[in-house]
Amino acid sequence: MLQYFLIFFLLASTSYANTEIKNKIIQNLENTKNLDFKFEQNINGRVENGNCTIEYPKKIFCEYARSNNKILVANGKSLVIKTITSYYRYSLDKTPLNLILDKNYLIEKINDLEERVINNNLINYTIQEQENEINIFFDNKTFDLIGWQNTDMYQNFNITFLSSIRKNRVIAKNLFTLPSQN
């Protein structure tokens, strides 16, 4: 009888801990209007880094370090990637960023998914949407979004890590204005 009680207690405490983690992540997302951070992005082994600002919903501005003045900007509807020599414009809803930059979508999915704790440091949720699989990672202490992993529209494997995260700062109104094509 005692062993059944211990098993029940362990399962109940694990379930409570998982619910508490999920609730803290959701509360943190709900309280986040924007965030800026440094990033490191690995696309099929090619590593780039820089700084980004996200404003919910669905806006992002990234400046890449040492890379032809590369910027990435999404204004909620379109995504532009611009360098000195190239200019690409996409409908945001055709990219995985459409889902990653939508905190209400993330909250809805996190509510329905089981988390996976990795090395007691990371909390991972795997989102399956149409033909996309997106892994979202949160810090196990701060419950901040710290990265994602997905396959982009060109079937490139993309891993993005976030660091030096700052939340709810004053952002210039025109930051998410799409750049013009030269």
Using brief descriptors, characterize the structure shown.
24% helix; outer membrane lipoprotein receptor (LolB), chain A; disordered N terminus; 3 helices; eleven-stranded antiparallel sheet; 182 residues; alpha+beta; globular
Describe the fold and architecture.
The chain has three helices and eleven strands, in the order H-E-E-E-E-E-E-H-H-E-E-E-E-E. The protein has 182 residues and is an alpha+beta fold. The chain has an eleven-stranded antiparallel beta sheet, with no helix packed on it. The radius of gyration is 18 Å and the shape is globular.
How do you describe this structure in short?
By secondary structure, the protein is of the alpha+beta class. The protein is built from 3 helices and 11 strands, in the order H-E-E-E-E-E-E-H-H-E-E-E-E-E.
Chain-averaged pLDDT: 89
When the domains are counted, the total is 1
- pLDDT < 50 stretches: 1-16
Q: Helical content, roughly? A: 10-25%
H/E series, N to C?
Answer: HEEEEEEHHEEEEE
CATH topology: outer membrane lipoprotein receptor (LolB), chain A
User: Helix/strand/pairing class, anyone?
Assistant: alpha+beta
Biggest sheet, in brief?
11 strands, antiparallel
Q: Termini separation (Å)?
A: 76 Å
Note the total helix count. 3
By DSSP, the count of extended strands is 11
Overall 3D geometry? globular
